[in-house]
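sorry for the late reply, my laptop died twice this morning and i had to redo everyting from scratch. anyway the thing you sent over, i finally got around to it. pasting the sequence first so we're on the same page, its 281 residues, then the predicted structure underneath. double check i copied it right bc i was rushing
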Amino acid sequence: MEFDCPFAAPGQWLKGNLHVHTTASDGVVEPQQRVAAYAERGYDFLALTDHGVVADVEALEPGPLVVLRGIEAHAPMPTGGTQAHIVAVGLPAGFRPPEAQHAQTLIDALAATGAPVIVAHPYWCGQTSRDLEVLHGYHGIEVFNTTCLRGIGKGTSAVHWDELLSQGRRLFGVAVDDAHGATHDAFQGWIMVKAAERTAEAVVAAVRAGRFYASCGPAFEAVWVEEGAVHARTSPVAHISFVCDGPRGGHCFHEDGSPVTEAAYRPPADARFVRVEATDE
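ok and here's the structure:
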């Protein structure tokens, strides 16, 4: 079973958000205020991803925060319907997105910079996995988005992720805020990245390699494969699930309702993927 384990990699765990907005586009918070607010909440890095605009991060006072240049850009889907919303982080200074007539053209242009490329909130956009499967070259999708949950109740896109993984696509799941307001849609979804050092370059490299996990609260202390079984150790949670393709998988909980902190699952030999999901109270 192929597994590039971030828990075994050298480095440090850093908490960050890859999708927020400011007054540079349709957010209500100034860039400097947005950076300060996430720093005050104990975040280690933040990507500013305004619509069609790459932030001038050199003009900011980052304090303890690592600030990444990012963007949320839009382009028509080849399948029609709502436009694709594409996020990229770690862009070079001076980057300007192309006037793309096709989502794949936009993805290609963003990926050519070396930036990790993420499909934003497909459930909110009304897209299905069939819409996403025709696109290639992106690194992951947003499986949780705070502002989509707070806005219309469509915050999760895990089924999209599972269906793409079932096709053999190696894609990562990202939790983000997509914050537009000051607090109601902020500080609720993030990723924990195992980075070699506390720099923008190291964070971007770790995201590109998939050395991270997404969270809205629970923490993973370790995930490992041993003798064909997938093991997970977490902070105290209500249950731990092992999600596979098709009608198989595992689910660990205690009948008395006491917290679970460790579980294991042996997937069938032909499993296309296994992902681990921890749910707290």
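The chain has a mean pLDDT of 96.
thats about all i looked at so far, will dig more tmrw
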